[in-house]
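Build the 3D complex.
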Amino acid sequence: MNRGLIIGRFQPFHLGHLAAIKFALRSIEELIIAIGSAEKSHEIRNPFTAGERIEMVKNSLDVSKGIDVRKILIIPVPDTNVHYLWTYQLDAMVPKYKMVFTNDPFTSMFFREKGTNVIEPPLHRREVLFATGIRSRIAENREWKALVTPQTVEVIEDIHGILRIKAIHARSTVHA
Amino acid sequence: MNRGLIIGRFQPFHLGHLAAIKFALRSIEELIIAIGSAEKSHEIRNPFTAGERIEMVKNSLDVSKGIDVRKILIIPVPDTNVHYLWTYQLDAMVPKYKMVFTNDPFTSMFFREKGTNVIEPPLHRREVLFATGIRSRIAENREWKALVTPQTVEVIEDIHGILRIKAIHARSTVHA
Amino acid sequence: MNRGLIIGRFQPFHLGHLAAIKFALRSIEELIIAIGSAEKSHEIRNPFTAGERIEMVKNSLDVSKGIDVRKILIIPVPDTNVHYLWTYQLDAMVPKYKMVFTNDPFTSMFFREKGTNVIEPPLHRREVLFATGIRSRIAENREWKALVTPQTVEVIEDIHGILRIKAIHARSTVHA
Amino acid sequence: MNRGLIIGRFQPFHLGHLAAIKFALRSIEELIIAIGSAEKSHEIRNPFTAGERIEMVKNSLDVSKGIDVRKILIIPVPDTNVHYLWTYQLDAMVPKYKMVFTNDPFTSMFFREKGTNVIEPPLHRREVLFATGIRSRIAENREWKALVTPQTVEVIEDIHGILRIKAIHARSTVHA
Amino acid sequence: MNRGLIIGRFQPFHLGHLAAIKFALRSIEELIIAIGSAEKSHEIRNPFTAGERIEMVKNSLDVSKGIDVRKILIIPVPDTNVHYLWTYQLDAMVPKYKMVFTNDPFTSMFFREKGTNVIEPPLHRREVLFATGIRSRIAENREWKALVTPQTVEVIEDIHGILRIKAIHARSTVHA
Amino acid sequence: MNRGLIIGRFQPFHLGHLAAIKFALRSIEELIIAIGSAEKSHEIRNPFTAGERIEMVKNSLDVSKGIDVRKILIIPVPDTNVHYLWTYQLDAMVPKYKMVFTNDPFTSMFFREKGTNVIEPPLHRREVLFATGIRSRIAENREWKALVTPQTVEVIEDIHGILRIKAIHARSTVHA
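Done.
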């Protein structure tokens, strides 16, 4: 089957991720969405658990026009202590795939060293649609809701995610 | 949402698992299928990788009458070194759920100690539909294909799974 | 300071353990009680968590005549994946000690290879005072309460420990 | 029992910690002192082993007026790779407790997400009584002994801790 | 370069291993000797540390006629928790190789699934030259020295290895 | 035997390392070269795998005048999560040694706390012969080849190591 793989941490899932998924679905039959750093949560770069991120992605795709969720698998993938082993661990956790969609040069490097076909989705409104910026906006009470899906907003509010992000940022400041 | 969780290792996915999934879907809106011992493969009790098992489950459900795969999430969950932490690790990996479907008394114990509602699906042709028996049948060249879905057969053949099970059994005999 | 170390898993804490602690206290000023396999629980050989075992030991010693609990430290120590490192990991987790009390030949071997003084406490009613036997008695509804302290009975009942031991044994039988 | 839990890394144990322990003992019957990051030592933020820190705490409390050490348990608790699991791992390592004493907003967050009662002890001379500052004072040959107990001084001198802190700081400078 | 890889646990290094190494050296320019389960020691199937095993192999080869130790690398390789990742972890630990020498059907399976060329060295006096048998002979005071090299005997005696094997076997009997 | 141990990460192996090895060989009969942080690769401070580094060292020594590679063992040693355990883990992985050659004050500290004899090799052209500087030179297209052996250059080119270092640096910049 012509299956593809897209990799992200989705901290949180935003409109740039949604655009990349739509881009990928144009050239493949089935798409695996790998939720990276799945074991991480409650830290500055990774505030949300894998379960919370899966819910953001699933709920957003369920209502997206032009996306058939029956063609999608959402799979959490933990980090490996040994970087070199990450793509091999991934291969044990997901069905076989033919190409990888990613914009991260480091991730690309590993797949290219293995000989896997890597495609870079076009970046969509990159100046605002990046997760680090969105987390800062949440921590600093700046506008962020228009940058993510309504389903992502709903999950974050439901788990008191704004309070969590502020508590994590407070600690970092204390330790700095 | 009225979401449920069913837990199995699916080594391999068989008709008893399919019946249990259909049973669970009768009383809930959305079902998480947790693939247990996800990090294990290539050993007697766990010959198949999580990726291979996900493919068995997904392909089987895709063509099952009366199952809407849009209401299903398939999530691999690794074991924890510390038994006590397993259900908590699970909670970090999956969206929130209201009840658990399992026939394993040990798994039930953990959820009941936590106060989670546990439902035991009725066992379907238990004398033949159990994975240990099916793996033995494969190793010993006895009939097994009628006990699983055609999609499971296809995945096992595609990955040369019969040879793998025989190689694992050969080793066990040598070490005994 | 003339400090000693006694090692056990205390699954559960019984009258033989109590006698060994009293024996050790006769020749030292302060005693470290190391709770071994601290990370393990909910399995046949290790049904109780470290926290539950600490409570059994502490509550039993608090009311024991002739024991001054101010001279005692109770420290949980996890297993190491690498056997060779266990005594070194232990040394990082406890204050310095001058001698070790143990009846296990394997544990003795490690300390003797390191040059530590090992003393074997006399075994007290060994034919009934051993934890494996006590766990079997609990699983099989045979008499066990007279073999442990009243405080151990109280902790086990408080945590529904009899049910837990039976659930763990049930599972083992299923898998055999 | 009305048992409480106080959490710290105690790198090293200082007069602020002692004041917080006395504060906690006013409202509870028994106190668990959890030594956090127990597996860490010989690094900038964690120079001392858990065993060394236990000795600082125990020796200091043994001679403190108004503290009954029979009401105290000192338990080392390692970090978890997965933040989300830390409080659950803790629960497996210590007897049951009813409230938590901590001033760390991040630690509070986890307990509050679980529904545990969190109390913030009043900070005592916060401008000097914080461990990062005390470690810097030691590394830079500034006055520090009046900020900790005489027993902490004794342990640090006994293990050549001043040399150790300087060696660790030397390395950090080299790598910067 | 025409480099080969031979895999063993060498518990202990015996004359069968020596014959297999000589066999491999006939068809390659350089040989990597991978010491498997390198992190294990002091247990029934793995009594010796990697360091002790390296010493057995190195000392034996140093004096073997017809072996040029300049063409040999001896590399300890730990087990992986995840079987599937073992050959990939190995690849990160050793220089590139073109073929693998092993008689273990399970090890062969992994390399064959990856497409690596596997050669089975002829077994030499298999009825006595197998490590499990040699360890039993040591534990039971039967003749074993003629089955290994004089250098292996010397290392085992130097580390009091006979006592160690007996202590490990004693424990197993106690637990049985 | 009068065996010594030299420790380095060799990221990459350069002329300063070669001089230190020659220095060590003057006072000992056999030298163990421990490749530290063996499990790490593909990151800023550790771009190369242990296998790649072993190849750099072995190929360089094979052609070095005055070095007898039969007196040398090259052993990869992973980091430990627990710093305190590192030297003990090392002892399990290598044959017994009588002295350690290192210039790192932190590494020295651990061996000195254990009572091991530590010798600091004289630093050779320290202002250019340090691995961090050589990695920066590679990333920034500055001259670096004269600072390492021709064999190191050959290995780095063979594995496309320059591209790898640039990809790793690109990522770091993105995340900063």
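Residues 83 and 117 of chain F are 20 Å apart (CA to CA).
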